[in-house]
Structure to design on (285 residues):
């Protein structure tokens, strides 16, 4: 990952760039890139790009929504199955030379609450229906035809938390949306899956809920600070799965994302509208 000074040197005479995750494209860097016209980001997240500063400098910011939605949805289900069937305990049992069976539960007949019914949330919902799960969502604004066709019930967030056996997060922003009060609404036997953003969940409150077994467990692929600190208390818990922000990192997803990022860049520099623009107001200049 390139730092600020390296980026300033590289961007001095550059018109377009494909930006890697974590590269600090902040006001200092952007103000010293006078030729820069386009930043193309593989993936959806643009947290490391100061969109307001880019817009002020007339720099178009592009991303690739949807390129990794299948990968993220499949990882979500991998995590749900791991929680439901206690996979870590069962795999570890045999590796340690034992043969005790750690009993889990079926997904069929259980309720999945999806918070954030965008492209990824919809892919998760489709897979949940194939597993004979009941699906509910708190996303009232998006795509009523889809929710009706998929027989997805719409509930207020607090109601969703109280009814769901699994709560899966697929939204950005809304820092600490799940705070101590909302975590307390979850069933004692419920699991929380977070493949969205680490800051959506109050980390301290979640640790307390897991430590005190007020919820059955969690599976976390994202954290507010990454990599996860070596001394993070989450590492001590036996009822949480931790993965290194890998949900969208399949070979197929990376290939799709890279190709779309390149196409966005080529289109923008060639005077054509890119496929996906984060700050479309720049297009009108």
């Amino acid at each position: 990952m390139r730092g600020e000074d390296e980026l300033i040197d590289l961007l001095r005479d550059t018109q377009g760039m494909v930006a890697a995750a974590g590269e600090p494209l902040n006001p200092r860097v952007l103000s010293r890139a006078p030729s820069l016209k386009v930043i193309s980001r593989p993936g959806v997240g643009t947290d490391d790009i100061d969109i307001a500063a880019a817009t002020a400098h007339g720099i178009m910011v592009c991303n690739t929504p949807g390129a990794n939605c299948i990968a993220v949805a499949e990882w979500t289900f991998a995590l749900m199955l791991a929680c439901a069937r206690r996979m870590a305990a069962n795999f570890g049992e045999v590796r340690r030379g034992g043969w005790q069976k750690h009993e889990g539960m079926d997904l069929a007949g259980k309720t999945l609450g999806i918070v954030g019914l965008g492209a990824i949330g919809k892919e998760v919902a489709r897979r949940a229906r194939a597993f004979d799960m009941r699906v509910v969502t708190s996303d009232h604004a998006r795509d009523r035809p889809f929710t009706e066709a998929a027989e997805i019930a719409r509930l207020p967030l607090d109601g969703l938390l109280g009814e769901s056996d699994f709560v899966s997060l697929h939204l950005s922003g809304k820092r600490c949306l799940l705070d101590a009060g909302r975590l307390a609404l979850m069933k004692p036997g419920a699991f929380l899956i977070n493949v969205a953003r680490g800051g959506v969940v109050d980390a301290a409150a979640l640790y307390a809920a897991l430590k005190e077994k007020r919820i059955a467990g969690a599976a976390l692929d994202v954290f507010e600070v990454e990599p996860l600190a070596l001394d993070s208390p989450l590492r001590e818990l036996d009822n949480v799965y931790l993965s290194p922000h890998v949900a969208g990192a399949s070979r197929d997803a990376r290939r799709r994302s890279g190709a779309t990022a390149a196409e966005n860049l080529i289109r923008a520099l060639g005077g054509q509208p890119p496929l996906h623009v984060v700050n479309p107001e720049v297009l009108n200049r």
In short: Residues 18 and 262 are 7 Å apart (CA to CA). The radius of gyration is 21 Å. Residues 251-269 form the longest helix (19 residues). The chain is about 35% helix and 10% strand.
